[in-house]
Specification:
Strand order of the largest sheet: 2-1-3-4-5
CATH class of the largest domain: Alpha Beta
Oligomer: single chain
Structural class: alpha/beta
CATH topology of the largest domain: Rossmann fold
Distance between the termini: 34 Å
Number of helices: 11
Number of strands: 5
Number of domains: 2
Radius of gyration: 17 Å
CATH superfamily of the largest domain: Response regulator
Helix content: 40-55%
Strand content: 5-15%
Largest sheet: 5 strands, parallel
Length: 222
Amino acid sequence: MTIRVVLVDDQALIRAGFKAIVDSAPDLEVVGECDDGETALDVIRDERADVVLMDVRMPGRDGIATTRAITSDDDLAGVRVIVLTTFELDEYVVDAMRAGASGFLDKGVDPDVLLDAIRVVAGGEALLTPKATRALLASMTDEPAQVVVDEDAVQHLTTREREVVGMVGRGLSNDEIAEALFLSPLTVKTHVSRAMTKLHARDRAQLVALAFRTGLTTLDDL
C-alpha cells in the first residue's frame, strides 16, 4: 500500500526538493502540498494523508500550532506528523512533541533517512532522535506536571511489557526491540499497544516520557 504524504512548507523550492525525494520511492507518494498552516488541514483531509512533513516557521499559523490542530482533530486521528526545520533548538523539539508530532528532523537530513522516517511514523512508531529524547527529558525535569503517571496502571504492566516500554524509552524501534528480545515485530507491536492502552499514552512519544517517569528507562540507558 502506498503511503500518502502531504508537504506543508512556505518555500516552494523546499517543497519541490522534498517532493522529488518522496516520489522517488515506489511505496511513497506526495498527494498534496500547501504553503501555510491555515489551509493545511483541508488539504490533509481532502487528500487522505497518512504522513505530513511540516515546516515550523510559516506565516500565519506556524507548524507547531498546525500540528496541534491535526492531532486534536478526531477525523485526522490516523495522520502522523514529522516536523522539519533548519533550527535545531530544544524548544522546537519539545513543542513539536507536545503538539503530538511523531517525529522531528533537520531539513538537511539525508534522503534515505527521510524516506525511512516516513515509513517508521506511518507504521505507528515515533521517530525520536537522541537530541529529541534529551530535550523532552529536560522539559519533563523542568515541568514535572506535564506528564501524569497513573501508578496503579504501571503495576498492571506485565514483566515483558515493562521490558518493552523500557526499550521504547531508549529510542529503539519495534524491529530493534524484536531483534534484541528474539521476538517477532508483530509481537513487540502488540506489547507496545497494550502498554500504551494501560498507561493511557496518546502516542509513542508520550510512552517514552512515561518510561522515564516510571523509572523503566533512565538517563544511563541512553
